[in-house]
Amino acid sequence: MLRYIIRRIFLLFPVLFGVSLLVFLVLHVFTVDPTSVILGQHATAEKQEALRQELGLNDPLYVQFGHFIGGAVTGDLGRSLFTKEPVTKEITSRFPATIELTVVALLLASIMGISVGIISAVKQYSALDYMSMLGALLGVSMPIFWLGLLFIDIFAVRLGWLPTSNRLSSSVDMVVYTKFFLIDSVIHGFKTGDWGALGDTVRHIIMPAVVLGASSTAVIARMTRSSMLEVIRQDYVRTARAKGLSERAVILKHTLKNAMIPIITVIGLQFGSLLGGAVLTETIFSWPGVGSLTFMAIDHSDFPLVQGTVLLSAAVYVVVNLVVDLLYAFIDPRIHYA
């Protein structure tokens, strides 16, 4: 197992190198000159040339890429072209917001998706099954930006139940310990006895989390139904029923447990998908995370910042896949890694 983990960790480096190279080439070939964005359309050619020289944009591409990789190895991803702040500082200040949103969205999607998938499999070809699969199809088909605007119109504008932006109301006074506001609001509640911050944090995160996780809920529900149906027809499930076990025990203990491997795979892949989808969701809900930072960086052709955020997303995606692979061994004892 240890050798397998070490081998997978070493495989991270060529993957991240390939992602970095691809992003670097796309940014430098297909995006506009950042100096025209920084200085504006009416800047003189002399000023643009001076800024290009200052930013190192006149160097050959392989030299610029070499500087980026050399810095990345030591943890230095350069400086933002606009804010002049280190990219690592910009990312780390926003990363907790994105991780919190992604984790909550994945939890909601997993709970809803697995529940709907189980019910749909147990009640196959019933009206409930058809309704569940129709809902899953709608969840996959609806674009995030359209669903987000629809939620804002219904739950914020018309009903006034939920806020449309940010992570916490300006009127709420809460000490930030970890930058994960759900955790911080719980700590605040235990220390002060005032649980208003927790309620306000939940009200802020619930709408973007549901919108972000809608597509994943549908994917997980469809995979759960398919995997459950495959297992539910196995001989050992019929044997469990013949032994007189309750239907609840048969479904949860014998069927769901053996159907979980492909479901866990999908959930792991959805984590990476949610990180990518966070760009749109965070922009729609003005969520101060890495996604909205990436959108701003792309809009401004801020090369170092885009490269840093994409590199971080790729690293998280690969690490999550490694964790998912390792979980297989705990769920199915027949799986051994060498």
Describe this structure in words.
With 338 residues, the protein is mostly helical. Helix content is 77%, strand content 0%. It has helices at 2-30, 34-39, 45-55, 61-73, 87-122, 127-141, 144-158, 181-192, 196-232, 235-242, 247-284, 290-299, 303-331. α12 (290-299) runs antiparallel to α13 (303-331). The longest helix is centred in the C-terminal third of the chain and has 38 residues, at 247-284. The model has no long low-confidence stretch (mean pLDDT 85).
In short:
With 338 residues, this protein is mainly alpha-helical. 77% of the residues lie in helices and 0% in strands.
Low-confidence stretches: none
Query: Into which percentage range does the β-strand content fall?
Result: under 5%
Cα(first) to Cα(last) distance is 6 Å
Radius of gyration: 24 Å
The average pLDDT value, as a whole number, equals: 85
Q: What share of residues is helical?
A: over 70%
The total strand number stands at 0
